[in-house]
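Team,

Forwarding the record for the chain on the shared tracking sheet. I've put the sequence and predicted structure together so nobody has to dig through attachments.
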Amino acid sequence: MPPPVYVAMGSQDRYYVMFADGSSKCVGCDNLSNDLQKKSKGRFVKTVAFGVDWDSYFVVYTDGDWSSRNVPSELMDLMNKRQKAELDCVSLGPNGEYFVSAKNGRAWWGGMTTQNYAIADRNVKFMDFGDNNILFVRY
C-alpha cells in the first residue's frame, strides 16, 4: 500500500486515511462516505473532523468547499456567513466544541467550557479537543 499522507481519528473507532496515491479509507457513517465519494471527485480532502455522535462530521476540501452533518448549530450559523473559498480547517470536539480557521489567518471557536475559553486568545492558529475537557492549542 502507498504511505498515508493524512489521518483523522475520532471516537467510536471512526477514522479517515488519505494515501499518497490519492486513494482513501474511511470508517464512519454512510452520509460521510457518500459525501466523500460525491464531493471529492476532482478535488482533495484537506481535513476531516469527527464530532459527538456517530453521524457528526465536518469535511474541508482543498478548494475551501465543505460538507457536514449533525454539527453544533452555532458552527453552522458561522459557516453560513463565511465564503466557502476562505475555509482552511474545522475541528470538532466530543462535547460540541468547534474550531474554524480561514486561509487569511482568522479563527473562530465555540462550545467550550469557561476554563478552556480562558486559555484561548486571539492568536490561536489551531485547536483540537479531547475527552475530559482536554484542549490542544497551537498559537
